[in-house]
Amino acid sequence: MLPVRPKKSLGQHFLNDQNIARKIAGSLQFADEKAVVVEIGPGSGFMTQYLVDQPFRLLLIETDRESIEYLHQRFPQMNENIFHRDVLSVKLTDFSEKPMSIIGNMPYNISGPLLFMALEQRDMVSEWIGMLQKEVAERITAKPSTKAYGILSVLLQAYFTTEFLFTVPPSVFIPPPKVNSAVIRMVPKASDVPQCEYAQFKSLVKTAFNQRRKTMRNSLKNFFEPEILTNPVFNKRPEELTWQEFEALLSL
Question: How far apart are CA 143 and CA 239, in angstroms?
């Protein structure tokens, strides 16, 4: 019997394989004794057990009250570093002045918002390691001109180095999800990033992909002046462009 009941409303699927939990925890690259590591959605602490005795400072952010109560019981030494918060409302600067390593079995029902949170607070992220639906992980690491390539691919690859680490089957979760999962690593890039404003870049990419089957001359007709839309690049569909080519559109 599980010490904490998984709640469908929170998108909870608790990992139940020690080897995989250990492998995810071991994927941290920058977590030395001076690091701050934030685990998102620790649940019953199944992965926390492989993080709690490491030399870095570990913080746990959990929205489920039942999980919070159990985490305090299981890891009493962590009491001051367990936070009952909605992670989507969290500002990482509230916890540290320097970039942090983010890790977790991410709640599937908020995976998209969590990834946009990573983008918007990227200056406070040293690395981001998360288990997500495999389909989402494939989108993040997809190459141009592929079916999976889309908004997340462009935006995340513009600001992060993204890496698909490994696939995780449904059978190692309680309850088992209906889809495969996967673990990814994202590391913010020190250079070779868009020089334009993030909000403008995001708006352009999202507008282009809102009608991904159409050429960008159609999907971006309200974004650019008619004379700019005569450029041959607008004959392409959005999935054909790299993030660098999207940025170049803003200079036309």
Answer: 9
Q: Do domains 8-188 and 198-249 have the same CATH topology?
A: no
Angle between helix 111-120 and 198-209 (nearest 10): 150
Fold of 8-188: Rossmann fold (3.40.50)
Task: Tell me the domain boundaries of the chain.
Answer: 8-188, 198-249
Interval 123-146: pLDDT, tens:
999 999 999 999 999 999 999 999
CB–CB of 148/158 below 8 Å?
Answer: no
Distance CA 184, CA 167 (A): 9
Q: What pTM was computed for the model?
A: 0.94
Rounded Cα–Cα distance for residues 9 and 125 (Å): 28
Q: Domain spanning 198-249: which CATH class is it, in words?
A: mainly alpha
| Token pair listed for 133 | 């639906």
What is the DSSP secondary-structure string of 217-239? HHHTTTTS-TTGGGSGGGGS-GG
